[in-house]
Design goal:
heterodimer, A: about 210 residues, 7 helices, disordered C terminus, B: about 110 residues, elongated
Chain lengths: ~210, ~110
């Protein structure tokens, strides 16, 4: 056992422990802000695993896209919807958690059996190491050209869709009363459309009485 | 530069790690009450799939690294999914004033 292989083993153990405990924290912690930051830690640890697997370009893409974009997006979403609300109790929640835990454990045992009993064709050809970036570029512009172009169309569609879904339309005049709308505060509070409220007629009648 | 795969860290170690991560993501996806945490669990599952793809690409397909190309496409689709999912969540929050998954029951029979 050489020093290099020992170092690789230690790195794998540390990174995999970070991934496992970080993901458990993401799922189990009650405070969702802690969960979001732990999710960033999990993404960084996965990028470290990619570096151990001779894939420097994908590791850089993982850090840029996941930690830099997706995690920040999730943090912004938490800031936008972070209202302290007491979630109503649901009957049979503990039983449901136990049942789904059993299902997930069964899935894990199935995957474990497949992982450990399949005769994988190792050792394969030796990895190309630092030339991986060049090889990815060749793949993207020859035999994976159509998925590459479709990915650009998909990103454009999702960008337009996200803008259309997330923006709030503001009219210059109120369409019900005809008055001018206060434009100073666009994100002002407004009666939600679909929330369960008592009908307006009954409350008006009660106040008239 | 010729690089070799580590003998001390076998392929199965990466696969077992990815299986643990995937099952954690599935459990969180089923049991989370907060809608943002559901999206985080989906990201965990996508990362588990990516670990599998990268491990196979390095250990079995070392010369034509097709697994890495697939992982890049998965990362792209995951970014698009996160953007659209969070926009839908924001729109839902404006209309229902909650992020509780149990109260998003408009289409339930």
């Amino acid at each position: 056992m050489t020093i290099a292989s020992t170092t690789q083993g230690i790195c794998f153990l540390v990174l995999s422990a970070a991934v496992v405990f970080g993901s458990l924290g993401v799922v189990l912690l009650p405070n969702i802000v802690y969960s979001a930051f732990l999710l960033g830690g999990v993404f960084l640890s996965v990028a470290g695993l990619y570096l151990m697997l001779n894939a420097s370009f994908v590791a850089a893409a993982q850090v840029l896209v996941y930690v830099g974009a997706v995690n920040v997006l999730i943090l912004f979403a938490i800031m936008l919807v972070n209202k302290k609300e007491a979630m109503a109790d649901i009957p049979g929640l503990g039983l449901r958690r136990l049942l789904s835990g059993g299902v997930c454990l069964g899935l894990f045992l199935l995957l474990l059996r497949v992982d450990l009993t399949t005769p994988w064709a190792v050792p394969g050809p030796s990895p190309i190491g630092d030339d991986a970036t060049v090889r990815i570029g060749i793949h993207l512009f020859t035999d994976y050209l159509l998925p590459f172009e479709l990915a650009s169309v998909l990103l454009l569609m999702s960008m337009i869709g996200a803008i259309v879904l997330a923006r709030r339309d503001v009219f210059s005049i109120d369409i019900v009363t005809g008055d001018d709308v206060d434009q100073a505060l666009i994100e002002k509070s407004r009666t939600p459309l679909l929330i369960e409220t008592p009908p307006a007629e009954t409350t008006a009648l009660e106040t008239r009485r | 530069m010729m690089t070799t795969n580590s003998i001390d860290v076998p392929l199965q170690a990466y696969l077992v790690l990815a299986a643990i991560l995937f099952c954690t993501g599935v459990w969180g996806l089923i049991n989370s009450r907060n809608a943002v945490r559901v999206l985080m669990s989906i990201e965990l599952m996508l990362n588990a799939v990516n670990i599998n793809l990268m491990a196979f690409s390095s250990y079995i397909d070392g010369q034509l690294i097709r697994g890495q190309v697939f992982a890049i496409f998965v990362i792209t689709v995951a970014a698009a999914e996160a953007a659209v999912g969070l926009a839908i969540l924001l729109s839902l929050y404006r209309n229902r004033e909650t992020v509780d998954m149990e109260r998003f029951n408009l289409l339930r029979w």
